[in-house]
Amino acid sequence: MVISGKDIAAQMQSSMLQQVDAMAAKYGRTPHLVIIQVGDDPASTVYVRNKMRAAERCHIRTQHILLPAGISEQELCRLTDKHNTDQDVDAILVQLPLPAHISEQKVIRTILPEKDADGFHPDNISLLLRQPAQPDHAATINAPVPDYGCPIACTAKGVMALLASTGVNLSGKHAVMVGETDVISEPMAKLLKDKQCTVTIVRSDAYDLQAACRVADILIVGADKPGLITRDCIRPGAIVFDAGLNRLPDGSLTGDVDFEACKDVASFITPVPGGVGVMIVAMLMHNTIECYNRRING
Ligand code: GUN
Prior knowledge:
CATH architecture of the domain at 154-277: 3-Layer(aba) Sandwich
Order of helices and strands: HEHEHEHHHEHEHEEEEHEH
CATH superfamily of the domain at 154-277: NAD(P)-binding Rossmann-like Domain
CATH class of the domain at 154-277: Alpha Beta
Largest sheet: 5 strands, parallel
Strand order of the largest sheet: 5-4-6-7-10
Mean pLDDT: 97
Oligomer: single chain
Bound molecules: guanine
Number of strands: 10
Distance between the termini: 41 Å
């Protein structure tokens, strides 16, 4: 069965719109997200546009700051710091990747943890990893994961919301994550472990990737390598999430999983586009609202 991230994200967005309108009536202002983009990489431009459109649908104010690719690390850090101290700004996102002369980790560390829209700040990741499990939390549209008191990576939250939509009991399942992005895989592993899953993280260039993937009841792939996951990688009945995004030479978008070959081996599978990607954008709105709420209510 194909899981429609698009439908779940749309439901979330209409619920978030109501939430934002109610909060705006109560507190006199709507949440405010600042998106900083360095250079005009076409993929980043598309991502940023999608984020701005989603924010508009939720009545979240956005400010898109487009900076020249040659900006220095110091100037960029100075700009994030300016928004850290602006009381009207609730959440800040620096679109990645950054040009090679700028350290992404350094820039992420300059964002105030309570304004970290992506949940990539090391303080937020370590805070999350130290929280006790909340195994009885039942996912809802407004609370797709338990409240751990800090922003959580949007991909991890998005996958958990999609998993909840399947109705499958996660306890005792083996989840395998394929990819190299630690700021996403570590929070993802924590959320799954808190649901009593066994978790394995595998590099996309692992010696026997097929064998590593075939043990998975839940396979989560985010390596940005088209065609990486073939039918032979899928254990029959597994749940497959494709968080990869690749543009093919003909201009079309595809994930990392050979969708056509895998869709009838998997019990549930997400398409690209319309799967994990739209959920990531919805969860960015969710994180922005949470940042706003925590800044107002503590
Ligand atoms: N580039 C690709 N995905 C993301 C994301 O989730 N956040 C940021 N900041 N940059 C990205």
